Fold these 2 entries.
Entry 1:
Amino acid sequence: MASAASSTAKDDEPTEETALETARRQLQRAAAHLDVDPGVIERLHHPNQVHRVSVPLERDDGTTAVYTGYRAQHDSVRGPYKGGLRFHPDVTEDECIGLSMWMTWKCAVMDIPFGGAKGGIVVNPKDLSTDEKERLTRRFAEELRPFIGPTKDIPAPDMGTDAQTMAWFMDAYSMQEGETQAGVVTGKPPVVGGSKGRDTAPGRSVAIVAREAIDYLGWDIEDTTVAVQGFGSVGAPAARLLDDHGATVVAVSDVNGAIYDPDGLDTHDVPTHEEEPEAVMKYDAPETLSNEDLLELDVDVLIPAAIGNVLTAENASDVQADLIVEGANGPTTSAASEVFEEREIPVVPDILANAGGVTVSYFEWLQDLNHRSWSLERVHEELETEMLRAWEAVREQVEDHDVTWRDAAYMVALERVAAAHEHRGLWP
Ligand code: NAD
């Protein structure tokens, strides 16, 4: 992520912005296009609250280790806070604040009644046994208990955490409440209140938005070539759905490299990260490429869906795609965004494109509060409706204000958040 990039760069190298710097700069850019009370903008520069907790863990060998955990809660004017919990050695307070701001915009652009939050523990989960991870998660839930809850702040999985982590978290929270509170987290296994379709939702939304963008540009999807970096929860469903819609997916990759077939890959046959981790390169394809080469392929649509900061000042001029749809969070640096703007290459931003994840998390929360389970068909239909609604709102801003897709998405979000602040007012 951005903050990790800056912390590892040498002093004489240009550093990427941190997540917090990016979030604040995006807020300023969007505010410049809108007539919003400067007092509201000033409030939105700051998180409402940041909780820092110490999380003691009894290791398997009987020793005690203490980890630092955070929960940044940016803004709750439109509803309870919502956002992921990551277990990663690079988690910092500032990164949590920056990512919590992104969550505010992501929820608002989707018109979901949640505000933004993000949290995590500074730990490498690969250094922990499954039992240690469970104890750490349960203790973290206990430390955060005063600040979270189904109507206050609803965490979700993120880097280094998964559906099992959310099940432990929900169980630990519920045990102290004296009743099952499935709505305290989303991204749970369906058997304990998770939603069908949550796992593929961010990739599905990327495919829906890419399909709409292809249509908007007047292209025929049957004649459209696509390259996807990353073949995990986001990249694989996105590639497979676009393949199903008739697009030709010529390249996909994992951390080890990319496979390439100019006639199109059978994306349903390539193993996803979940089906068999890091197995993309084992697939029998005509050519292999590096991840760097994949980003510079001469394709119509490029979908970076692996990690942040892969499209940079160094490679933006060499990108040959005519449309970029951001599957990962923050794959395009600010400098690269400027190059794409100059080159008039549309970049559909992460806060819109991969928002299917938080949208189906919202559906999960609704199902939990109502003690109902939706069919997969219903989840897909409602996600399609919500994505098209958000796409239309952003498209209108692009057309009305002649701005980039990223600025348009932030403007839609900021307008909604600011209007809520203006109606509620500042008390006292
Ligand atoms: P994942 O772990 O399921 O898959 C990641 C894929 O990227 C794997 O194929 C992996 O091999 C590959 N990869 C890892 N490091 C790479 C590298 N350095 N270069 C190229 N490929 C690499 O992860 P995911 O859940 O699909 O998340 C991908 C991105 O999407 C992240 O930025 C994440 O924050 C974002 N995102 C995820 C969700 C979600 O709910 N899963 C929602 C919104 C956004």
Entry 2:
Amino acid sequence: MSNYHIKHLEEYYQVYRKSIRNPELFWEEIAEEQFLWRKKWNHVLRWDFSKPEVKWFEGAQLNITENCIDRHLATRGDKTAILFEPNDPSKSAEHITYLQLYHRVNKFANVLKAQGIKKGDRVCIYLPMIPELAISVLACARIGAIHSVVFAGFSATALSTRINDSDCKMVITSDGSYRGAKTIDLKGIVDEALERCPGVKIVLVAKRIHSDIQMKEGRDQWLQQLLDEASDQCIAEVMDAEDPLFILYTSGSTGKPKGMVHSTAGYMVYTAYTFKNVFQYKENDIYWCTADIGWITGHSYIVYGPLANGATTVMFEGVPSYPDFGRFWDIVEKHKVTQFYTAPTAIRALAKQGTELVEKYNLASLKVLGSVGEPINEEAWHWYNDNIGKKNSPIVDTWWQTETGGIMITPIPYVTPTKPTYATLPFIGIQPALMDEHGKELIGNQVDGRLCIKYPWPSMARTIWGNHQRYKDTYFSAYENMYFTGDGALRDEVGYYRITGRVDDVIIVSGHNLGTAPIEDAINEHPAVAESAIVGFPHDVKGSALYGYVTLKDTGESRRHDNLRKEINQIITEHIGPIAKLDKIQFTSGLPKTRSGKIMRRILRKIAHNDTSNLGDTSTLLNPEVVQDIMDNAL
Ligand code: PRX
């Protein structure tokens, strides 16, 4: 495995150049090295960004679970695959070995089959961070069913939209979940969602909090009973390289969430290769990513990437603040975690608590620290570096997206010199480009533009479920022959990239992507609301928080604004989930609009940022007078 693990900067440049000069040869060599193929490919890559169509390893056949589980049994059967740390710190952690994982996934796969789930069927998974979540994901993959995991913080409305968009036949959930000192009635949310989902015939329910829930006759079944009766042997379905592995929804600039479709072989090869290199993973390491499997970070770097490498991956059910803000460090010490991967919003929240709770614990096991999900600000970077890494563990600031499937721009620890707030260099095989607003590529260093990718990589999403045109319009229409990321970035004097943030109407709040349109649609359903506009503003923990400008209908009735604010956040919680609640709501007499009726968000953004010294030209507005009014009443 000569070119598998990159060890120094010269080697990075060498391998990088090779991967760019002949990407097909490069990825073919990686794919040849360590995976289990039922049949090898006929073509490494076929692509055409104008359609867009991308196919990696066409003709190959495999099952990803054979690569993530079966392949390790001979040498790592007794090794811990999943190390489950429960919400309650007084309960012991569960070590699931590769052999146990094999049996549990097979049993679950047999349950799915017995319930009539077949290759290509969609299964929605709405579970907390318990082992059944990872196991159900793998069980779907074992039989070729397409999993669609919905983060268990989403509301019933958001869940039903996602279930219906991809016609899921089954939902896998639990009686409830623990979240710190609280419990959440997940099954109740599922019941409400399913009132709008006639296609769902079966609900499998895992027991977690042992609450007294309603089981719907003929639809709901206790998972454990079915597992107890199932065989622990299940022959893996043979999948084509390009068969869809999963759908994962992400917010967009328009109302409906986008079901990003990821395929099997390319996704496997890329997540495995990036995992190994970005975390410099070694055989006996204990790797912990704090994300939820409901997000892409959990799919790629809790489940598939680590397991494809035979790693031990920690799954944490709880929250960083329970029983106190030292919980993360307690877990690092207890399990001797070697790689720790989290989000800037968590780092900022923990930094706020000071260092007392950090100093209590021995963090000497740590070798690599990761950051993902949003730009990491300088202060958070230094706090992480000084107090958690003790200046000994490199920080990998990894830039990527649900759509990219795997890490795209990142330092390689102990190889790439890091620089605070910079994601640094493209990963092997990734060809970024910065574009100006006229569609011209900015060549050379010290430039600032819109971030695109010029050439396919194996784990890129292949389409949006049921809407290929939207996939094309969103990602391949802004610049010819380029994948457009929606992010702005700059390249410094040595070629390092710094992500400057979204350039579209997506706002990242606590690391969660939120499209403004779905939130505005929800608010506009309130009977008193005429229209609304959402923008982001800087927040010291969340990175960005949401600022809503709301114009009320003139009903003659005067309502208390405080009550309305509560009702608006209530509607948002019902439609999307609590993560999309607004921090500030300003009632306005109107919204600034262009003559064609488009809301001038640029102005609203400046007001929310408290930066009104230069609002630009407002004379072209249809209603310039509202701007002063909004400024005078800004929150
Ligand atoms: O704006 C970028 C930001 O998160 C977006 C992708 O969000 P999502 O699809 O939810 O995936 C998040 C986890 C991979 C990107 O378009 N983002 C992600 N990582 C970084 C980042 N922004 C700056 N620096 C990062 N390291």
